[in-house]
């Protein structure tokens, strides 16, 4: 039985719409974007009720639906011109409405409807956070913030990846001396979007400290433990009775992680009310860390390897470029120093090694130049000796010539 043949009271159009949303971030944002459109139509009730009402009307009158969608886009374009929203927001509303119609077999002339969409800029004008801003952020008094930010800036994962991240998905990799060089992390494990990235030693250390802290308070840490969980009472004070128990962990969803980051940004003075008509802050709360990773990593890594560690589709190159995990890791190692935020000891160690290397190189240059100077001096000395001998020879000849001239002169007289 097709969708259109189902009885109205049995059919749930919103369920089909949700079914078409694969990524966790899409499941979070698309329903809200759809509701903006349904509210524009002045449909009453909850989102479920609005969706059902819209589906009934759209199925019976496609022309009305096209007109409403075009009118909606025109209204949003006016909001763009007034500076209320950005041009890139309108296509997001359009995509949500289109997905709803596609998943519910509502056939419309989408080519005509899309003609009026405003052109959005190719890239947003927001920036990546600075190292000082990140350092200030992780000072926020929530023990989880350091692990969250460290993971995101050193791997570039999307915030939705935390919904799938368990302790067994983070594996430290040691060098021949037994020291942790990086940690390999499986992202979206078990999903179609699964890929791998890496963590810096300091990021792995931050997560390990967080897991050890949980174990200290009685949580049984296993490979299946969620990397991010709820907080719990750590003392016997009565006001903490409403908090969770360390022994009964509850996964902290990506939406909760986002709220922690947002609170930290405001509490640490990194977010201030927008003024002068600005609609965006200088850098995005969660996506800014992903931009930080890409900006820093591309300074030293192959761009295609950066894309691989970010889970991006590299297009036709994926059919031909097949690096091993080890090859990508070796490239990632070049970026560890750039992605290290607060581990000054590690940075200092790397700086000492670099200075030592440069010192040895400079020493070799100095020795080479000294050797060249010595050769030059010896050459000059030899040249001076030859010149001195030549001068002495000429002087002897001149003296002899003078004596011969005196003899000749005397004989003449």
Question: Could you characterize the architecture of this molecule?
Answer:
With 413 residues, this protein is mainly alpha-helical. Helices cover 55% and strands 4% of the residues. It has 15 helices and three strands. It has helices at residues 13-19, 24-40, 47-60, 62-81, 89-103, 110-114, 131-137, 144-155, 201-216, 254-267, 287-297, 303-309, 325-333, 336-339, 344-412, and strands spanning 170-174, 180-187, 195-199. It has a three-stranded antiparallel sheet. A hairpin with a 5-residue loop joins strand 1 and strand 2 (180-187). Helix 2 (24-40) packs across helix 3 (47-60), helix 2 (24-40) crosses helix 5 and helix 8 packs across helix 11. The radius of gyration is 36 Å and the shape is elongated. It starts with 12 loop residues before the first helix and ends with a helix. The model is unreliable at 1-5 and 237-242 (pLDDT under 50).
How many strands, which pairing sense, and closed or not: the largest β-sheet?
3 strands, antiparallel
Structural class: mainly alpha
User: Which term fits the overall shape?
Assistant: elongated
- Total strands: the figure is 3
Low-pLDDT residue spans: 1-5, 237-242
Q: Which strand order do you get reading across the main beta sheet?
A: 1-2-3
The helix content, as a percent range, equals 40-55%
The fraction of residues assigned to DSSP E strands is: under 5%
Task: Note the total helix count.
Answer: 15
Spatial gap, N to C terminus: 149 Å
Mean pLDDT: 87
Quaternary state of the chains: single chain
Radius of gyration equals: 36 Å
What's the helix-strand series? HHHHHHHHEEEHHHHHHH
């Amino acid at each position: 039985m097709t969708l259109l043949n189902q009885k109205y009271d049995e059919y749930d159009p919103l369920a089909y719409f949700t079914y078409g949303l694969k990524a966790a971030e899409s499941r979070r944002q698309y329903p809200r974007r759809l509701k903006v459109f349904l509210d524009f139509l002045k449909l009453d009730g909850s989102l479920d009720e609005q969706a059902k009402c819209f589906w009934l009307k759209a199925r019976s009158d496609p022309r009305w639906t096209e007109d409403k969608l075009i009118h909606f886009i025109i209204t949003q374009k006016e909001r763009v011109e007034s500076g209320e929203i950005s041009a890139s927001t309108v296509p997001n509303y359009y995509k949500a409405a289109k997905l709803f119609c596609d998943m519910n077999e509502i056939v419309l002339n989408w080519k005509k409807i899309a003609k009026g969409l405003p052109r959005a800029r190719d890239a947003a004008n927001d920036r990546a956070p600075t190292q000082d801003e990140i350092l200030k952020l992780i000072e926020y008094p929530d023990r989880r913030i350091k692990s969250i930010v460290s993971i995101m800036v050193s791997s570039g994962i999307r915030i939705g990846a935390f919904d799938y991240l368990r302790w067994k998905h983070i594996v430290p990799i040691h060098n021949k001396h037994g020291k942790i060089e990086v940690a390999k992390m499986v992202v979206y494990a078990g999903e179609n979007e699964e890929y791998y990235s890496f963590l810096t030693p300091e990021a792995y250390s931050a997560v390990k400290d967080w897991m050890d802290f949980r174990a200290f308070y009685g949580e049984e840490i296993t490979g299946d433990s969620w990397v991010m969980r709820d907080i719990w009472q750590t003392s016997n004070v009565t006001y903490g009775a409403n908090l969770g128990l360390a022994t009964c962990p509850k996964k902290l969803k990506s939406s909760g992680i986002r709220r922690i980051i947002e609170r930290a940004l405001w509490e640490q003075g990194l977010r201030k009310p927008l003024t002068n008509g600005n609609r965006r802050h200088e850098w995005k709360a969660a996506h800014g860390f992903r931009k930080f990773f890409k900006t820093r990593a591309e300074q030293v890594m192959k761009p295609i390897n950066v894309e691989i560690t970010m889970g991006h589709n590299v297009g036709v190159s994926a059919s031909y470029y097949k690096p091993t995990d080890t090859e990508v890791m070796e490239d990632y190692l070049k970026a560890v120093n750039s992605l290290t935020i607060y581990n000054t000891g590690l940075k200092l160690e790397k700086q000492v090694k670099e200075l030592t290397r440069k010192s040895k190189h400079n020493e070799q240059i100095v020795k080479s130049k000294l050797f060249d100077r010595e050769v030059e001096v010896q050459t000059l000395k030899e040249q001076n000796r030859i010149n001195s001998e030549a001068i002495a020879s000429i002087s002897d000849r001149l003296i002899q010539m003078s004596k011969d001239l005196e003899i000749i002169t005397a004989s003449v007289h």
